[in-house]
Amino acid sequence: MVTGDTLGVDFIYITNTSSDSNEWVKYVAKHAGDHYIVPKDKMEAMQIPDYDNAIPHYLIYDREGKFVKAIIGWDSVEAMMQEIEKVLK
Q1: Nearest by Cα to 16 from 45, 73, 49
Q2: What's the CA gap between 73 and 79, in Å, rounded?
């Protein structure tokens, strides 16, 4: 399995307080990365690119920290890996 460590990327997960906290704890235990719960009223202040309360919402940044792409929804691991690999090239 390819992980963020083997790719040389960081995975950061942010959810708002609408998520069930018990389910969230189970989820984060399965996924390496940094995990944060942000109060719903603070999500707007974060100025997340292309965010319109859509979950899941993925952001890809290049190695210099420049925003590259927002992905809304989940297609597959393979599709996400292709998007990440494009940025890493």
Answers
A1: 45
A2: 11
In this structure, what token pair is assigned to residue 28? 């984060």
Residue 37 phi, psi dihedral angles, 5° rounding: -110, 125
- Are the CB atoms for 39 and 16 separated by under 8 Å? yes
Domain housing 26? 4-88
How big is the CA angle at 33 (ends 31 and 38), to the nearest 5 degrees? 100
Contacts of 29 (CB under 8 A, 6+ apart): none
Dump pLDDT digits (tens) for 16-66.
888 788 888 888 888 778 888 888 888 878 887 777 777 777 888 888 888
Peptide bond into 56 cis (omega under 30): yes
Q: What is the CATH number of the domain that holds 58?
A: 3.40.30.10
- So what's the pLDDT on residue 1? 43
